[in-house]
């Protein structure tokens, strides 16, 4: 029974920070690439950050330099540190995972956590 539980969202002012967490259970976490996506109604889903099973990270241009993804394999958790938040960062943020050696797409998704950034 695979579960991904995202948390840490909230309402912040522009320029503030949030740290999102995703607790993972039911899979071999060390073998999975993990990512954070965000979705706003009327806009396409965007992958904002990814971390592979060997700790290689990548970011969308819109968040590069402001967000940082990390993982703690001992805790089966992935994090997204978000700094200098902007109103355009407002979205529902989802964590997702895929097995690095096999999957082409992300098969496992969390329930999402709302991030709202006010001006």
Any overview of this molecule?
It is globular and about 40 Å long. The mean pLDDT is 96. The protein is an all-beta fold and 119 residues long. The chain has strands spanning 3-7, 10-13, 18-25, 32-39, 46-51, 57-59, 67-72, 77-82, 91-99, 108-109, 113-118. The termini are far apart. Strands 2, 4, 5, 6, 9, 10 and 11 form a 7-stranded mixed β-sheet that branches.
Radius of gyration based on Cα positions:
14 Å
Low-pLDDT ranges: none
Task: Name the helix and strand elements from N-terminus to C-terminus, one letter apiece.
Answer: EEEEEEEEEEE
Total beta-strand segments: 11
Helix content: under 10%
Largest sheet: 7 strands, mixed
Shape: globular
Strand content: over 45%
Structural class: mainly beta
- Rounded mean pLDDT score: 96
End-to-end Cα distance: 41 Å
Helix tally? 0
Brief sketch in words of this structure:
With 119 residues, the protein is mainly β.
Write a concise keyword list for the protein shown above:
0% helix; 7-stranded mixed sheet; mainly beta; 119 residues; 4-stranded antiparallel sheet
Helix-strand blueprint:
Elements: E1 3-7, E2 10-13, E3 18-25, E4 32-39, E5 46-51, E6 57-59, E7 67-72, E8 77-82, E9 91-99, E10 108-109, E11 113-118
């Amino acid at each position: 029974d695979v579960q991904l539980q995202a948390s840490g969202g909230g309402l912040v002012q522009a320029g503030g920070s949030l740290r999102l967490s995703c607790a993972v259970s039911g899979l071999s976490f060390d073998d999975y690439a993990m990512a954070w996506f965000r979705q706003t109604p009327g806009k396409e889903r965007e992958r904002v950050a990814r971390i592979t099973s060997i700790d290689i990270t990548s970011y969308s241009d819109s968040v590069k330099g402001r967000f940082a993804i990390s993982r703690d394999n001992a805790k089966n958790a992935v994090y997204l540190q978000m700094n200098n938040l902007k109103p355009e960062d407002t979205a529902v943020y989802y964590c997702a995972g895929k097995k690095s050696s096999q999957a082409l797409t992300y098969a496992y998704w969390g329930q999402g956590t709302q991030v709202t950034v006010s001006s």
